[in-house]
Amino acid sequence: MEMLRLNLCICACLCSVATLANTSGPTLPFGKTAAKPVIDGKLSPGEWDGASVAKNFVDNTTGKPVDDQTTAYITADEQGVYVAFRCLDPDAKGLIGRSVQPGSEFEGEDFVSFLIDPFHRTNFNQANEFHVNCIGTPREKISGGRASKVEWRGEWVRATTRDEAGYTVELFIPWKILSLPGASKADVEINFARHHGKKSMSSFWADITQRELAENNGVWKDVPLPARHSVKRFDVLGYGTAEYDNEADKKFTPRIGFDVRYRPNQQMTGVLSVNPDFRNIESEIAGIEFTRTERFLEDSRPFFTEGAGFFDMTGEFTFGRMFYSRRIQDFEQGAKYFGDIGANDRVGALVAHEAGDVFDGVFRYGHRFGPRTSASVFGTAKTGMGNDHRMVGASGSWGAGNWGSDAQVATSHDNGDQRSAGAVALDYSVPRFFTTVKASYVQPGFDPALAYVPYDNRRGAYWYTEYNAEYRKGPYQRVHAESFLTNYETYDGHNQDKQWDINVSAVFRNDIRVMVGRTLDRFMDEESTNYYGLVRLNFSNPQKFARAIVNSGERAGHKTSFFRFDSGYRLPNKMDIGLGFARLDDDGIVQQTIFTLGWELDKYRSITARLVGQDSKTNWYLAYRRAGGRGLEWYVIVGDPNANEFQKRVALKLVWAA
Q1: pLDDT digit string (tens) for 628-654?
Q2: CA 563/CA 289 separation, integer angstroms
Q3: Strands 52-54, 234-245: parallel, antiparallel or unpaired by DSSP?
Q4: What Å distances lie between residue 117 and 23, 543, 619, CA to CA?
Q5: Is the pLDDT confidence value at 489 over 70?
Q6: What percentage of the chain's residues is helix, strand, coil (to nearest 5)?
Q7: Which of 41, 100, 422, 565 could bridge across to 7 with cysteines, CB 3.0–4.6 Å?
Q8: Domains in the chain, ordered, with CATH?
C-alpha cells in the first residue's frame, strides 16, 4: 500500500503543476465563398474565392519550405466543411497511387491529409483525419472510432484529378459525422499535410516538427457551427450467417446477431452487441521468434476496435496493458458507452456476458489539463464461475518544452489476494534525439484477469535512447540508432533480467533498408548473446518488397539461430501475393510458412486467402468479399481463418445496416 500511495502522489503531482497552454501554430481567419464549392476535383475559376487559404508548406524534418508546393483552401456552411488541395509536382507522371480500396494505408504513395478538431484539444488521438491519395482512394480516422460499415461510420465526399502540373483534391465533410461543441462559433484546430511518395517525405502547413507536436497544429478562427446538431440517435448493424462445418456436431448452423448504436449527442456513443460473429474475422498470427513471455497480439474484432482509445489504460512501454481485449475471447452479449464530455474529459465503460455466467467489466475516465498533461483512473473486473478478479489503477502524464513525465499504478484483487504494480518515467526529446528512463515494480502474483502483464516479481528500471535523422540529399534517406538497457531483480534480490540491446539502421536513397544490432542478456542465471541483421528491398513499397531477418547467437550454453523471409508482389491485375518463411533453432527446430493472396477486383469487391503451416499442421481459408459501400454486404468463406488446421467449412455471411 505504501508504494500504491507513492504512485498516486506522483500522478497527482503531475497534474497539479499543469496549466493550460496556448498553441504555437499559425491561424486562419474564417472565409466564406459566394456559393458552396462543387466537389469534382477541379478548381473552377472563382469557385474558391473568399475561402481561407493555407500556403507555404514546410518539410517537418527541416522546417524549410519544400520545392513541390501545395495550396489548400477551406470554407464551411451549415452542412459541413469544404476543403481543396492543389499539389504541384514537376514530375506529375511519376505520382504514385496504388491503393484503390477505401481504408488502405497509402504507404509510399502520394496523398493529402486534412486534420480537424472542433474542440481544439491539441491531441492527435482525439482529432479527425481525412486522407485521399492521388487516384482518389479515401481513408479516414474519425474521433471516437467507428465500425467499418459506411452507414455507421458516416459518409464524406472527395474527388481527385491529375494533370501535367500535379494533382487536385476536393473534400466535403458533413458536420453530422463529427463531434461538435455546443456553441455557435468555435476556434477549430486544423492542419493540412501532403505526403510525397517519390521523396518519402511529408510537408505541412502548420509545422508539427519532427517531434510531431499536436500543439503546433493551426487554428481556424471564429468558425460558425450549425445551429442544430442533427444526430441520428439509433443505428442497427445486423448480420446473418449460414455455415456448413463438417467437423461440428451440427453440420448446418444458422446464426444471427446484431449491433445497436445509440448516440444521445455528437460526443457520446453507446453500442449493444448480441451474438457477435468473431469466428469469421481474421486474427493476427503469432510469430515463432524467440520470446520468454506471451506475445501481445492486436485485436481486429469490431466491437473492441470501435472506440478503443477510450479504454487504453496503460501504454505499451510500461509494466503491462491493464486492458487486453483478447482476454475476452467470446461473449453472448456486450455493451459499451464511450465519448467526450466537453473538451477535456473522456469516459469509457464496457460490460460483456460470457458463457457460464461470466461477466467482464471495464471502466476508464480521463481528464486533460493541457496539451501534454492529463490524468486518468481505470478499473476492470471478471466475475463468475466462483472467481472474483478486480483491478483499479490511475495514470498521469505531463509535458513542457523538451521534457515529459508519466506514471502509472494498479492494484489487483484476485479472490481476496491483493497485489500491485507501478511505474514512473522521465523523458527528454529534441529533434533527432529522444531518451527516457522508467522505473517500475510488479509484485509477485500481479496478473489481473483482463490484463497483459509480461513479467511479475520484478523491480528495476530501463533506459531507452534513440537517434533519428532524415536527409534530403546524399546516399541516405534516414538513419536510426537505438540503445536499450534494462536492470531488473526479483523481490528476493536475485537477478531477473539485465540486458543491453543496441542497433543501427539506414534507409538508402535507392529505397533499401539495412539494420544491424547486438543483444547481451542475462535472464535469471541464463546468459545469452545474439547478433542480428535485416535487409529490406523497396522499403517504401508494401506491394513490391522483399525482407530478410537473421539472428544468431548463444543461449544457456547452446547455439541459437533465427531466420525469416517475407516478400510481397503486386501483379498488373491488382493481385497481391505474399510469401513468408521463418525458422527458429533454439534447442529444437520450429518452422512457419505463411502464404497470402489479395485480389482487388474493384473498390468494393476482393478475394483474399491465407495459408499457415507450422508444427506439421496446415490451415488455409479462402474468402470473397463484397463490402465497403452502402447497402447489403456479403462474404463467402471457405475454411476457418483462425483455426490451427484446415476445417471443412463453408460460411455465407450477410451484413446490413439500418
Answers
A1: 888 899 999 999 998 889 999 999 999
A2: 9
A3: unpaired
A4: 14, 33, 44
A5: yes
A6: 5, 55, 40
A7: 422
A8: 31-224 (2.60.40.1190)
